[in-house]
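Our preliminary data section would be incomplete without showing what the modeling component actually yields. Below, a chain of 622 amino acids is followed by its predicted structure, encoded as tokens that our downstream tools consume directly.
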Amino acid sequence: MNADNLALAALNTTAFLLCVAFLLYVVFIMRPFLARADGIPGSRAGYDFHFVVPCLDEELVVGGTVRHLLATFPEVTLWVVDDGSTDLTPGVLADLGEQFPQLRVVTRRLPDARRGKGAALNAAWRAIDAALPAGADRHRVVVGVLDADARLERLAPDVICGYLVDPRVAAVQVQVRVTDDVDGLAAADLAALVALDDVPARRRDSWLVQLQDLEFTGPIAAMQSLRRRTGSVGMGGNGQFTRMSALDRIAEEFGTPWHGALLEDFELGLHVLLTGARTEYCDETFVAQTGLPRVGALLRQRSRWAQGGMQCMRYLWPIICSPRVSLPGALEIAYYLWVPWSQLLGSIVFPAAVAVQVHYMTTTGDGVGDWWAAGAWGLVPLAALFGVLPHVVWGPVYRVRSGGSVSRRRAVALGLLNVAYAYLLQVAVWWAFVRILRGRRDWKKTPRTGSAGSGRFDLPAPGRAPDAGERSLFAEPPPAAGWVLDVGPPVSEGDARPTGRTTLAEPSTGRLVFAAPPAAPPVEPPTAAQPLLPGGRRPRPTVPAARTTPVTAAPPAAPAAPAAPAPPAAPAAPAPVDPAGPATERLSPVLTSRPAAPPAAQRPPAPTAPAPEHPSDLEQHP
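Predicted structure:
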């Protein structure tokens, strides 16, 4: 066999093996995916949930996300990490802090800021660690990571706790849904999801966005179903929930919970497995995120993911050698880490094989017709079996898994478009490979093009920056001792109102570490989950809170002088109240405006609280 024939045989064999491996993998992940049974839901009672939202220049979406999370889950503590934003994000967060006392803002400044999502999440972990009381059961403290445009399904904490009943489970990843209207998809009322004639409402997302949703609810969900059996479930950057004790364990063994890979979520899952704990995947609930309507933004996002996967190749040998990771799990992780490199190889091998076949078709025998009649027609069903069917099959599967929210015709069209979509994403892999060759490791942030949750891109940001000289609300420092407190000066010269800010400085260096706000107004503003009842009362939440804060009753006021009796007024009819509590629904338009703040004279003094035992290099301020 001469050199040309040998090279041709090697090319065809490589292309054939890649096709067979891909087809077999699709078959392997499809079987457990279609046979998946729902788990047993749990209860969030007794668990302390902390949601972390890292954001960088997210003025268009962070306001709606904060309102959604704190209205739907009033019992959680929300930590928003402002990673050096230069837009109106700090002002929007300060404005939201006046309305929601559960909001904690962790602000990072340059040069420490903008060092990647992992560094921002480590900052939140340190802040949560400092805020937890000394006797907290950190095994029942759950830290959830959500994107700045996320909408979490209202029963998600309960479903997640059903997996956390197993003490070996340290982290749970929920299913991700992608849509143009996150509020509509995450709405709790069935009327928003199902038409009046009980026919599922048709999805109105764009083709590209719906292909992204197909990817997450189809191939990615199927991969995670297989990983549940092999013990190698991967974590995602949106909708991952980890025990605080597991994060502490990773920090003890590896320095910090999150590390420097651009795929920091998958990297965290690997570290969970290396510490001997288990990861789980939950598709009984979901977190919704806004899809990317433009190809350029999509390729930018996927290039970051591909580069992060390539960076995680350094964990392959520790995973294989670890006695804490099962052999099937190590093999599955090895395959996943090999995927970006196989895509690079396939993007060269497959076009080269097609070019060779076209060359033989046009230069040998009596032309194309003779070559075709000689048996070359068999390449067509072979190419359809290995190169088209594994992608097209996800269209009908997507229709079934989405409850029939897409028509049969659209499902078939999505399956056919998925072929082009899969090959389009190979461009992102090459983009990532070039970045690695050039030594680029910066975080390529996904750009925002509009207000998440509105379904439109011409609306203003769901929040308002405070005016100059207006009071802002800061995160409350945890109790500790040995720190210096200082109340801020007046807003401006000639203005008797103080800023209300209480700064907290490190004793040794005098460096500002925390800033504390004045206490919240006596009556909290209404939320979508807890509207005020007549008389200013607030109904009980629909879900019992994991922890309660005792309220100290104010001393009785001195009796006032008797006044002339007023004529009796006609009693107002009380508004009907659902004894089970209000149902969570889409955010009311009233939440897009800021309630009037109480006068400065009525504002309570700022609480004086000491700083954490282990101060970090972070600041909490507007």
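DSSP finds 16 helices and eleven strands in the chain. The chain has a mean pLDDT of 74. Preliminary results of this kind motivate Aim 1 of the renewal.
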